[in-house]
Automatic annotation (TrEMBL):
Cross-referenced CDD domains: PYR_PYL_RCAR_like
UniProt cross-references to Gene3D superfamilies, sorted A to Z: 3.30.530.20
Name by which UniProt lists this protein: SRPBCC family protein
Superkingdom field: Bacteria
Species lineage: Bacteria, Pseudomonadati, Pseudomonadota, Gammaproteobacteria, Oceanospirillales
Length: 145
C-alpha cells in the first residue's frame, strides 16, 4: 500500500478554506487540473454517497464517491470508483483542515492510500502529490480573490 501525504499552512482562515474545499463538486472552481465536474443522479454535493464525475483538460475522467463529510471536524473522505488514466486500486483519500490559532491561518492535510504497480509508482505518487498541493494553493487563491 502506498501513502501520499501533503500538508500546508494556508494564509486564510479555516472557515474561508473550508468554504471552498468542502464542495465535493467544486474542483474546477479552484484547481488548474480539472475542467468540469458534475454530481451524478442529481444528488447534493455534500450528500454522503454522492458520486462526482470530473474531467481534466485532456478529457480524462475520474469518478469518486464521497464517504464522509464533517463540517464540525472540517474533514472529508472519498474513494475512487473509476479512473482509467490513473493506474491505482483501492484508492481512499482524506482531507482535513485545522485552525492555526496564533495566526488565524489554516492548516490543511490531505492524504491518500492506494495500490499501484511498481512501474507506475513514481508517476502516480507525483501526480497525486501535485493534485493535493495545487488544491490547497487554488483554495487560497479563491479565498483571496
Amino acid at each position: 500500500m502506498t501513502r501520499v501525504y501533503v500538508s500546508a499552512v494556508m494564509p486564510t482562515t479555516l472557515e474561508q478554506a473550508w468554504g471552498v474545499l468542502r464542495d465535493f463538486n467544486g474542483l474546477p472552481n479552484y484547481h488548474p487540473f480539472f475542467a468540469k465536474s458534475e454530481i451524478e443522479e442529481g444528488k447534493l454535493s455534500d450528500q454522503v454517497g454522492c458520486v462526482r464525475h470530473f474531467h481534466d483538460h485532456d478529457g480524462n475522467f475520474i469518478r469518486e464517491e464521497l464517504l464522509t463529510l464533517s463540517d464540525r471536524e472540517h474533514r472529508c473522505c472519498y474513494r475512487i470508483l473509476e479512473a482509467p488514466a490513473l493506474p491505482v486500486r483501492d484508492y481512499v483519500a482524506e482531507m482535513r483542515l485545522k485552525p492555526v490559532t496564533t495566526t488565524d491561518q489554516c492548516f490543511g492535510e490531505w492524504w491518500a492510500e492506494f495500490v499501484v504497480d511498481d512501474g507506475d509508482h513514481h508517476d502516480v505518487v507525483q501526480r497525486v502529490t501535485d493534485t493535493f498541493r495545487l488544491a490547497f494553493e487554488g483554495a487560497v487563491e479563491r479565498c483571496q480573490g
